[in-house]
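Hi support team,

I'm opening this ticket because the web form for multi-chain structure prediction keeps timing out on my end. I have pasted the exact lines I submitted so you can reproduce it. The total is 1091 residues across three entries, so I didn't expect it to be a heavy job. Is there a limit I'm missing, or should I split the entries? Thanks in advance, R.K.
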Amino acid sequence: MRFTKDHEWVVVEDGVATVGITAYAAQQLGDVVFVETPDVGKTVVQGEGFAVVESVKAASDVYAPVSGEVVEANTGLGDSPETVNADPEQSGWFAKVRLNDPAQVEALMDRAAYDAYLGTL
Amino acid sequence: MSMNNVGRPTAPNSDSGSGGFAALTGGRGLLQDEALIFERDGWFKTGVDLPEPVLSAEGLGDLVRQEAIGLPGLSEPEAMRHYVRLSQKNHAIDLALYPLGSCTMKHNPRLNEKLARLPGFADIHPLQPQSTVPGALELMDRLAHWLKTLTGMPAVALTPKAGAHGELCGILAIRAAHEARGDDARKVVLVPTSAHGTNPATAAFVGYTVREIAQTADGRVDLADLEAKLGPDVAAIMVTNPNTCGLFERDIVEIARLTHAAGAFFYCDGANFNAIVGRVRPGDLGVDAMHINLHKTFSTPHGGGGPGAGPVVLSEALAPFAPAPWLVHGPNGLALAEHEVDDAARAFGRMSAFHGQMGMFVRAYAYMRSHGADGLRQVAEDAVLNANYLKARLSDVMSPAFPHGPCMHEALFDDRWLEGTGITTLDFAKAMIDEGFHPMTMYFPLVVHGAMLIEPTETESRQELDRFVEALRALAGAVKAGDVERFRNAPHLAPLRRLDETLAARKPRLRWRPEAVQTLAAE
Amino acid sequence: MRYLPLTAEDRRQMLGVIGADSIDALFVDVPASAVLPGPVDLPRVAGELEVERELTALAARNRSAGSGPFFCGAGAYRHHVPATVDHIIQRSEYLTSYTPYQPEIAQGTLQVLFEFQTQVAALTGMEVANASLYDGSTAAAEAVMMASRVTRRSHAVLSGGVHPHYVRTIETLAHVAGVTTERLAPAVDAEDAVIAQITPQTACVVVQTPNIFGTATDVTRIAQAAHAAGALMIVVTTEAVSYGLLKSPGDMGADIAVAEGQSIGNALNFGGPYVGLFACREKLVRQAPGRLCGETLDSDGRRGFVLTLSTREQHIRRDKATSNICTNSGLCALAFSIHMSLLGEQGLRRLALLNHQQALRTRDALASVPGVEILTRRFFNEFAVRLPMPAAEAVEALSGQGILAGVPYSRLEPEAGLDDVLLVCATETVTDDDINAFRLALTEVLS
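Hello R.K., no limit was hit. The queue was backed up. Here is the completed structure from your submission:
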């Protein structure tokens, strides 16, 4: 699992990246009430907003940690947004993206680096 | 993801405990438990006696509504009980000091209600011949005169229906002015980080890119940052003065000068006009457009959320760019010009049907006339005095966000004094409810952590201010003494306890439905 | 001054507590060049008697609708509002309370909003409704912008029956949002002419029923055509009492129904404050503007209400909000809800039928006047007539005889070439004597 400074995580399997927000981010957000996942087929660009996660008092843009094409979206979050709070780094995933450039993932932080980064916040 | 620092619990704590003594049925002393009108047996009642129609609607054939509407009716006594019972669950200005910063919760004079209901104001149609309503036009003109004189501005657009609507009017006027100059490179609006949400929302809606101006350590617009960001791509700045931290922008004249030098316009959010009315004229500060919230500075009632009114005063440069209709002085007296003629072809159109919030014009004008120029000046002075008094009497137990120098009409505190106590701004605010006070504005402005913005207004007597101070000091003492339980699950004494906003947002139930009632808890 | 409780002694003592020499010390941040030395050049403080005298004199110069036969409609309607309504809205707890951001101490306002939303949804035949917008015209504009967001298209088609003020408002706001509008020529009875203008770029179709000429239309076919093209159907109504008699927008396939709610609970007030009704399909609600009240539970498990789905709104979403709107029309929505509760379904249906009846009688009376042509065939409580002279002149002449005869179409749209068209409305407040007086006076004016 790799991490961005904006608190997104990525797990890659067979050229497809599963993406979500970290436990830290979910905790900061408070109770998640709604997730706007991207449409399948949409092109996403690293660093640009591709999803929105809402709590009662805040709406936050989620930035794509990698560039590529959305091949699957976790539409189940529509009925159960609380999954993002309960299990943000597994069943609370947002979308699966077919990678354009695997090197983008290599450049992201690993768990140790991310934890160290959290310590600086 | 874009992080924000306003995440906070929106559901009650799981260890809320239960209330103490419980009655056997739903009531609680004077408070009555009141169901929805749909949850009773009034489906075929009506509380209005109407004659029996003799003609039918057969000419309308299939257009006649066949299916039931699905709405109950109440007899008059039942309706009275229903609404009076519900009213007892509302806090109100008429009950106590309502310290909402930025909202200006001042007394709503009942003379205004009486005069607004005179048939000559309430029972006139916006499209009846203008020759039959000269008094209405005259009232609008007098109100306009007062607004222009108090602000030192040459023109006013009366029609916007609320503050946000007024902001839209001002920004559209600015856009129209740039277009008229042939200047279409200006795509950016600058807004301080402390701005009220309607400011960037309005600018973005009009198609501008919003860029933020930094704030200095003492809570003002950072001039250097402003100067760096001004350029030929900037259409306008939107600044609140006094600002949302309750502070007067000392450099306001320079802010205006820099803005104009860069070819941009200065929009001023007039929400905090109560601090300076009668003592300072925004026109003297270089403002090009400013909306005035009649429901704030000029006492028209908040009514549980509206209606408001947001007339916009305009500088010479923007005066030609006001929306229809315009009050004009013609050879036969006052008239409402409702359509563009050659000159005003530069006007940007119409922001709503008809002529503006006449009901609020009457109330605001009655308020202004009652106070007079000297009374209004006293309003600003007392508002500022009251806020500084509260700040002085609370600063030793709470942490003022900007302790140096006076505040204006509102005092801003942050949550540094709560650090390590396990109690948040939210908890503290909810505990105020138990003491009989509506909480102050919380978590706004966003630039201050755990913000608590307190605006007493001039309406408060020394006695009420002291009562408020005593309550807050007592609560602060309880914080210091570690009485966490009092705060974490407050309020304990309100008609309802903390409500689950998370549930409301996850499973929105926005209306009553006739199907079998399911309990939310069961889902 | 009666509204200012502080005494000179209070002020002196408070300054002492603050540690300031004078009030001027608290205004130290104001640039010297902008400090006003004294009160501005306006009259000084005035007692109630004096203020009452001035405003009563101004009011007395206006001819109230109730002072004679009155037939004006065209977006604002004179109905009888029960005394209870105005009494309740003046209670301190409703009049002087704020937006219910602290729900524990605002359940009065919140429960009423929940009931209001239910009533509006039921009347419009739609799934959900919001807690009101400013008025019908801005509600219509918001609906167009919402349709653009939902469909991701930017063109709106407006029928020739939409109220011209609503058209101008929609144009002003939609153009700002980058939505182009096409408005068909004014037409008494041609709402479905919009069908021919629907393309794959159409975000929404906007029709009005009853329209500005009073025509009531079954717009089901139009909705079907809109949906076939992937566009949303927006149905506008300016006379809310018509919901008591006519097929509802929801029943005819509307995706968004907007209306002016003034007719129920609110006086004419020379055009404001009014109350905008906004209802839509439930699946679209996250794109809807304005406040929403929802049901929930408190920590003791008791049912309560809160403002919800706030992330759509400006105070959270800021520059990504669905609208910049902040206030709703709170007290006017309360008045609407109280009146609607008093009427109930039975009362509203009867009220609607009475309106229709008085309008039919007025139509028959005017039809008997030589030179008058009735243009509207199917109507609720207002209809258009063609006169053999400019309608504005006829209205002035009748006004001279104490009759407010209706609204000339040219008042709304001077360039439409419909100067001889008069819009006549008759509500339950119109008596048979009024109708007779109108008939006689009009006969005289036209002869």
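A quick check on our side: Chain B is about 30% helix and 10% strand. Let us know if the file doesn't open in your viewer.
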